[in-house]
Design brief:
Number of strands: 17
Low-confidence stretches: none
Shape: elongated
Strand content: 15-25%
Largest sheet: 8 strands, mixed
Distance between the termini: 52 Å
Mean pLDDT: 93
Number of helices: 13
Structural class: alpha+beta
Length: about 425
RNA sequence: GGAGGAGUGUCCGAGUGGUUUAAGGAGGCGGUCUUGAAAACCGUUGUACCGCAAGGUACCGGGGGUUCGAAUCCCUCCUCCUCCGCCA
């Protein structure tokens, strides 16, 4: 959510930000409503002031046994006006909030202006895509081949975009989760969190998924619960409506969760394999920082996520998303893209965003800069550290052998207990 | 799911319609005293919104209502505790 004062006082900056994104928002309606609200607020507060004064006088008169019926009668009439104004103001505030909640964040100045993913900027590459002396298979061919993935039974049990992982496949998922959590908690200083997978509306509004992206979410039919699309939601909302100590910052959390996405609008895309599933595992990194430190923490967050790929020996590149490709809440976002031989290209495996105070304002997450100082909004950041399902796909494709077996990356051997996966 | 109890400021805690602009205590901050510290004493200590300012308005779990006036009365929702039932 943008600062209402920024919209009011620096409309041009907001307009420029929106146009860089290609977003169309009703800013003029907003300003008109805002002005109307202030006008009515002024009037009603004056009336209330009078009412408060007169009511005290009534109390005083009654305490002295005197008649106050004249004053009471007078206030009865004003009461109606107060009630009307109050409800009008509530109405306007609802509308203002409604608009404010669907305005995306303003991109940071370092973000390249562009309309879609073709204008993203490649920042750096790591590792050399392997040259195969045989025709590499797709990850699902490899997985099905060695009996660790079962799509047919998953379709029977649940439907399309699900997979049953079996034996060392299941163990590989678990090993990767543990490997990533160990890395981030032991070497990068994150505190491990295991949050709820079902959250309420307020949490999803806090991080920006609601009200605009309801169709991407799975909603429970009984109770006001949604399945989390990412651990970002429950973990960021841990500190909703809180005032944090400056000394605590930055707060760094790492969380494993399953993630659930409806993939509305992705029909026909990535239907093969486990690249795009309704349910997938992810280790997520979340930070709460002081505003002046968030961009430096953002770079470090990207490094922390990159370390996972480096240790696994998976070639990847870092991409800075352009204004038109950024998520709704982000001010700046880097994607990590891993090399997938069967696609003959890099595919997103991690997304690391700085939201500045956009989420903090929605979720009311503040900190006190010093003793007695006024609370200010923190900056929130998060990034995949990293998506487990896509990592499985990347390992199966990059580490496959001609006989259909898969070499286990060295970093994972202590977790899996074997050096090679085969049928 | 059923029955009962409870939610007050950073914390504890008083307060069932009118000087409550929320008592009192603890903690924090500032000061006096002291070589220093402790103790004692004095002062101070929430958030948001409107306003150039003076100032005003709102907030006692959330929302709505009654009333000239609500922490206090009514409705509704949420959370926590106790007991019962069910349950991994």
């Amino acid at each position: 959510m943008l600062d209402i004062k920024l919209v009011r006082n620096d409309l041009e900056k907001v307009r420029a930000g929106m146009s860089k994104r290609g977003a169309n928002v009703p800013l003029d309606d907003f300003l008109k409503l805002d002005e109307e609200r202030r006008k009515k607020l002024n009037e009603v507060e004056q009336l209330k002031n009078r009412r408060n004064t007169v009511s005290k006088e009534v109390g005083r008169l009654k305490a002295q046994g005197q008649d106050a019926s004249l004053l009471i009668k007078e206030m009865q009439e004003e009461g109606d006006r107060v009630q009307t104004l109050d409800s009008e103001i509530r109405n306007i505030e609802d509308k203002l909030l409604e608009i404010l909640l669907v305005i995306p964040n303003i991109p940071h100045e370092s973000v390249p202006v562009g309309k879609d993913e073709t204008e993203n900027q490649i920042i750096r590459n790591w590792g050399e895509p392997r040259k195969f002396d045989f025709a590499p298979k797709t990850h699902d061919e490899v997985g099905v081949g060695i009996g660790i993935m079962d799509f047919e039974r998953a379709a029977k049990i649940s439907g399309a975009r699900f997979v049953v992982m079996r034996g060392f496949g299941a163990k590989l998922e678990r090993a990767l989760c543990n490997f990533m959590l160990d890395l981030h908690t032991k070497e990068h200083g994150y505190t491990e969190i295991f949050p709820p997978f079902l959250v309420n509306r307020d949490s999803l509004t806090g991080t920006g998924q609601l009200p605009k992206f309801e169709e991407d979410l799975f909603k429970c039919v009984n109770g006001d619960y949604y399945l989390i699309p990412t651990a970002e939601v429950p973990v960021t909302n841990i500190h909703r409506d809180e005032i944090l100590d400056a000394a605590q910052l930055p707060i760094k959390y790492a969380a494993y969760t399953a993630c659930f996405r409806a993939e509305a609008g992705a029909a026909g895309r990535d239907t093969r394999g486990i690249i795009r599933q309704h349910q997938f595992n992810k280790v997520e990194l979340v930070k709460f920082t002081k505003p002046e430190e968030s961009y430096q923490e953002h770079e470090q967050l990207v490094n922390d996520a990159e370390t996972v790929l480096k240790k696994l020996g998976l070639p990847y590149r870092v991409v800075l998303l352009c204004t038109g490709d950024q998520g709704f809440s982000a001010a700046k976002c880097y994607d990590l893209e891993v090399w997938l031989p069967s696609f003959n290209t890099y595919r997103e495996i991690s997304s690391c965003s700085n939201f500045e105070d956009f989420q903090a304002r929605r979720a009311n997450i503040r900190y006190r800069p010093g003793v007695g100082a006024k609370p200010e909004f923190v900056h929130t950041l998060n990034g995949s550290g990293i998506a487990v399902g896509r990592t499985v796909a990347a390992i199966l494709e990059n580490y496959q052998n001609e006989d259909g077996s898969v070499t286990v990356p060295e970093a994972l051997r202590p977790y899996l207990g074997v050096e090679r996966l085969y049928e």
